[in-house]
Design a protein that fits this description.
Elements lengths: L1 E3 L5 E7 L2 E7 L4 H22 L3 H15 L8 E5 L5 E6 L4 E5 L7 H16 L5 H6 L6 H15 L15 E3 L10 E5 L6
Parallel strand pairs: 1-3, 4-6
Antiparallel strand pairs: 2-3, 2-8, 5-6, 5-7
Helix pairs in contact: 2-3, 3-5
Length: 196
């Protein structure tokens, strides 16, 4: 916890390695300090859970995405994090309806994770990157944005490759580069009575 005389109306929190830093106005009472530290730590933890869901949450998320965007036709049996996917963002095995997501996705925005999940869900239905495959992803409004985001990560980390941008490829996964590009999590509140 850090107090600042220049900070008058905002409270913010961020991760600094293993530490959590909460910045508050210097004039806060001890009661206000405890209240805001608890509130901001809770917000950071909620943001962490959204960015790094556990595997049980991934399966629930995949099923909801299938229901919402693929009429529930893709029925994954498992969704797991994989530490050994250095050139793919995700992969799947249609025969057993299993999906593996690169752990490099942890910490990326939820809409990027949702795109990769949808990409793999679509592969449960169409194993190639044919027109029929891309038609399945039409209902997700952030497909192109997510593809651009992942291409940017690949470029920034120097691991550009053929990737999942090939329209005629026959692989079963969202390819990509390597590197840890997880953005830092920071939350900010304006005013003392901002909603939790």
């Amino acid at each position: 916890m850090r107090r600042s005389r220049r900070r008058t109306r905002t409270v913010s929190a961020y991760r600094d390695g293993e530490r959590t830093v909460v910045l508050i106005p210097a004039r806060f009472s001890l009661v206000e300090e405890r209240e805001w530290v608890e509130r901001m730590v809770g917000r950071l933890e909620a943001a962490d859970r959204r960015r790094n869901p556990c595997e049980g949450d991934l399966l629930d998320r995949a099923r909801e995405l299938s229901r919402r965007h693929l009429d529930g036709l893709a029925r994954p049996r498992s969704v797991t994090w994989a530490d050994n996917q250095h050139h793919r963002w995700g992969s799947c095995t249609p025969a057993d309806a299993s999906i593996r997501l690169s752990s490099r996705l942890q910490g990326m925005p939820g809409w990027v994770l949702d795109y990769v999940l949808l990409h793999e869900l679509a592969h449960l239905l169409v194993p190639t990157h044919s027109r029929a495959f891309w038609d399945l992803l039409q209902s997700y409004p952030r497909t192109e944005r997510a593809r651009g985001f992942l291409a940017g990560v690949d470029h920034a980390t120097g691991h550009e490759g053929p990737g999942h941008h090939d329209d005629d490829g026959g692989d079963e996964g969202a390819d990509g580069g390597a590197g840890d590009a997880a953005p830092a999590v920071q939350v900010t509140s304006t005013g003392w009575d901002a909603p939790a």
